[in-house]
Specification:
15% strand, two-stranded antiparallel sheet, alpha/beta, 265 residues, globular, 9 helices, 8 strands, Rossmann fold
Length: 265
């Protein structure tokens, strides 16, 4: 998920789950036997690939940056900076609606010149997860992840979010691997440019196929979970795709292809 705001609430389509607190992260696998959880299959290595923003949590990639920047600024300039940033967000939303990969390239320029030391990235990642992402994790998503882990699935996060933030989510969920965006660094500072292609659209499919080849996974037996058409490359790469609280366009596509639709909000 990119610049889109918190996921939509739909009346009459499943219930809306409450945001998860720290205790939900330790929930057992038994709770995952809710509708949509896959049954145990034959032996062999399997993985479940998850988008993060909008799928596992009611989050986006913009807010952690804005929150960190506001904490750094003197109180007197926070309001004018916030107003100007909101105007930039209008541009981000427009670009995101057209092309998710282009949005990511544009938005991550905001990080240009920022401290790229390991300590600084750790602080940003911890703050983003503890203050923003953790409270917005969907309890039903956590239950599903725990159920899959109990069935022997590797959990892999595949997100356009930044690696030092996504790793914190992965650690909390016990993920086996995290595929995320990385920023270039020069002289201990971020350049604002992505290292490699944005993790979106077809690139998500390419990344998980590469991971499957290394791990010896049969993608026909793997699952994938996403909320928007930007996840389509990932969803089409596996044998068992799932649309989660989907955007309208992904919901239409899921109906056409007969994909299960899950509501985790």
């Amino acid at each position: 998920m990119g610049a889109r705001g918190p996921p939509r609430r739909r009346a009459g389509r499943g219930g809306a789950g409450r945001p998860a607190g720290a205790g939900a992260l330790a929930a057992g696998a038994a709770a995952g036997a809710a509708a949509g959880a896959p049954s145990a299959g034959a032996g062999g290595r399997r993985a479940a690939f998850f988008d993060v923003d909008g799928t596992l949590a009611g989050t986006n990639v913009v807010f952690p940056y804005a929150a960190a920047r506001l904490r750094e600024l003197p109180r007197a300039v926070r309001i004018p900076w916030g107003v100007l940033f909101l105007l930039r967000c209008a541009i981000f939303l427009l670009v995101d609606a057209i092309n998710r990969s282009l949005f990511q390239r544009l938005f991550y320029r905001c990080y240009r010149g920022r401290d790229a030391s390991a300590a600084a990235k750790a602080r940003l990642g911890e703050a983003a997860f503890d203050d923003y992402i953790r409270p917005r994790l969907f309890p039903r998503a956590l239950q599903h992840v725990r159920f899959l882990q109990a069935q022997g699935f590797e959990i892999v996060l595949v997100t356009g979010g930044l690696d030092f933030v996504a790793r914190k989510v992965g650690e909390a969920l016990g993920a086996s691997h995290v595929v995320a965006a990385e920023l270039e660094e020069e002289g201990g500072r971020f350049t604002g440019r992505l290292r490699g292609k944005p993790v979106s659209d077809a690139e998500k499919g390419r990344r998980i196929r590469a991971y499957a080849a290394v791990r010896g996974l049969n993608l026909d037996r793997c699952h994938a979970y996403g909320d928007s058409r930007a996840d389509l490359g990932m969803l089409e790469a596996v044998g068992r795709p799932h649309a989660v609280s989907p955007s309208r366009s992904l919901q239409r596509l899921a109906a056409q292809k007969g994909w299960p639709v899950l509501e985790w909000e």
